[in-house]
Amino acid sequence: MSSNSAREAVLGRVRRALRDAERTPLSAVPRDYRTARPLADLVGAFCEAVADYQATVDRVADDAVAPAIAATARAAGARRLLIPDGAPQAWSDSLGEEFELVDPAADTAALEQVDAVITTAAVGIASTGTIVLDHGPGQGRRAATLVPDLHICVVGESQVSDDVPAALSRLDPVRPTTFISGPSATSDIELNRVEGVHGPRTLHVLVHPDA
Fold first, then answer.
1. Domains, the chain
2. What is the pLDDT of residue 209?
3. CA distances in angstroms from 98 to 22, 38, 62, 70, listed in the order given
4. Where is the LUD domain (predicted)?
5. DSSP readout, 134-188?
6. Using one digit for the tens of pLDDT, what is the confidence trace for 65-112?
7. Beta bridge partners of 51
């Protein structure tokens, strides 16, 4: 078969598939996979999966979130912290006594001087250990979560979903989203892992019982 004939054969199959898709309503597509893997302990599975990505994860009491943030920042040697607008005011009130809090609207040059960013999250995914930000209140703009070397992310137990489809059902499709699976990392041609190239070198997740 010539290359042109092969190309036409492939394109013909694509066209037929598209015509069939137009005749099939989305409601008729089987979606049993969405509930096929119920997890007995969503939060425990989430914490385990997050740790598998070489992130640090701690479960803390609801009233211990601010002290845990302070302890994490202190252990990392962080002094300049950024807390986005919309985060619990108690965090700023507590952390402002020990750390320098940077204006959440700081430009990129100022962000380079920030040691750690502290955010909330939109969703946590138990089956993949992924955290999703939709950059709503408490999550800040994307640059603020990519430039600082340490990201401390606070996730409520009620925000943890079983799998990706369940998580997507909680998200607003018109909002920008960032999926985070562990600290930023890449590998060179020799497969040597390098962290902190495209985002925070360190991810510390605090999970608390918010419900």
1. 39-208 (3.40.50.10420)
2. 95
3. 60, 43, 21, 8
4. 110-207
5. ---TTT--HHHHHSSSEEEEEEEGGGEESSHHHHHTTS-TTS--EEE-SS-EEE-
6. 999 999 999 999 999 999 999 999 999 999 999 999 999 999 989 999
7. none
